[in-house]
């Protein structure tokens, strides 16, 4: 006996919201890639540098956060290390583990990269603090679902 799959109809408002989210993500991605290029970085290098500007991380954790293979992370870290933006250092808690960490120059480039992202910042500036908090809370709720 064949089973029949039912597809729930999506209402027009949901379709519009999904389309708007897609447009925002695409515009942010395009600006991020342009900003990375302006710093002679690939998008992946810029994302890794931004991630490491928050805290040093082991390669495996970087791969998990960037949703890629650890071997890809090694290549990206190698290229950033060659430019003096990232360094490898032993983990104080487990000397067998190497952490990737930004250098002072890497921190400067990451900050400059963040500051050059106008699309993400300017439209949000037009919202009140309460509206930004509401948007943040709604996005967090969506991500938790």
From TrEMBL:
<keyword id="KW-0805">Transcription regulation</keyword>
<dbReference type="InterPro" id="IPR036390">
    <property type="entry name" value="WH_DNA-bd_sf"/>
</dbReference>
<dbReference type="InterPro" id="IPR023187">
    <property type="entry name" value="Tscrpt_reg_MarR-type_CS"/>
</dbReference>
<feature type="domain" description="HTH marR-type">
    <location>
        <begin position="14"/>
        <end position="144"/>
    </location>
</feature>
<dbReference type="Pfam" id="PF12802">
    <property type="entry name" value="MarR_2"/>
</dbReference>
<dbReference type="InterPro" id="IPR000835">
    <property type="entry name" value="HTH_MarR-typ"/>
</dbReference>
<keyword id="KW-0238">DNA-binding</keyword>
<dbReference type="InterPro" id="IPR036388">
    <property type="entry name" value="WH-like_DNA-bd_sf"/>
</dbReference>
<dbReference type="InterPro" id="IPR039422">
    <property type="entry name" value="MarR/SlyA-like"/>
</dbReference>
<keyword id="KW-0804">Transcription</keyword>
<protein>
    <submittedName>
        <fullName>MarR family transcriptional regulator</fullName>
    </submittedName>
</protein>
């Amino acid at each position: 006996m064949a089973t029949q799959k039912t597809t729930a109809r999506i209402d027009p408002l949901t379709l519009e919201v999904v389309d708007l989210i897609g447009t925002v993500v695409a515009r942010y991605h395009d600006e991020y890639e342009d900003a990375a290029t302006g710093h002679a970085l690939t998008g992946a290098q810029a994302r890794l540098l931004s991630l490491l500007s928050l805290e040093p991380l082991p390669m495996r954790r970087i791969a998990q956060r960037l949703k890629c293979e650890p071997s890809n992370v090694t290549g990206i870290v190698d290229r950033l290390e060659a430019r003096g933006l990232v360094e490898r250092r032993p983990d104080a808690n487990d000397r067998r583990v190497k952490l990737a960490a930004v250098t002072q120059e890497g921190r400067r480039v990451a900050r400059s990269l963040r500051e050059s992202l106008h699309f993400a910042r300017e439209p949000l500036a037009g919202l009140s603090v309460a509206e930004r908090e509401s948007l943040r809370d709604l996005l967090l709720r969506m991500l938790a679902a």
